[in-house]
Amino acid sequence: MSWLIASWPLAIDIQLRTLNSDDHQAYRQLRLEMLREEPTSFGSDYISALALSERDFRQRTQYATDKFIVGAFAAADLVGSCGGRRDPDVKRQHIGYIWGMYLRAQHRGTGAAATMLAATIEGLKRLPDLELIQLAVTAGNRSAEQLYLNAGFQEYGVEHAALKVDGKNYDERLMWLPLR
Question: CA distances (Å), 23 to each of 59, 78, 144, 155, 169, in order?
């Protein structure tokens, strides 16, 4: 099952909906692209993702109430994604996470990223007893930092040297959005 997200005003024609296992090939292609093009923006790496099986991507795109991926489609092409999930640990099930936010470069600056993020937040808000949403953004990625600040996220800390890419350390800004 997936849910279509109501039309949101955008500068370009983008449709948003949650992905399902039928989208696994398109998501694999987009995921590999994001990890190759923006290696400092994600904790996962291209080589490891390349080794994942078709089954892995089917499972990743399988919709569940407490974990989902919002996809942005231009015509029939998947051009962006944003994941949302609830923490599975019993003591942390009041926390949701935003992960894997990416939009192809030619669609940036159109409002599509903000809309995709808003749709993911709305999907997480549907989860009972969720109190807050957390995310991590690479320090210095100004456009992403501003996107999250504009959505109401607040910084609560910095994880120093959270990522190491090509021998260089990158900090991550830790952000949260209270829902209550």
Answer: 11, 9, 25, 33, 34
Instruction: Mention every residue, 6+ apart, whose C-beta is less than 8 A from residue 28.
Output: 52, 54, 57
Residue 15's CB is within 10 A of a number of other CB atoms, namely 15
What is the pLDDT tens value at each position of the chain, 180 positions in all? 444 454 444 556 889 999 999 999 999 999 999 999 999 999 999 999 999 999 999 999 998 889 999 999 998 999 999 999 999 999 999 999 999 999 999 999 999 999 999 999 999 999 999 999 999 999 999 999 999 999 999 999 999 999 999 999 999 999 999 998
d(CA 25, CA 30): 9
Domains along the chain with CATH numbers? 15-178 (3.40.630.30)
Helix (H, G, I), strand (E, B) or coil at 29: helix
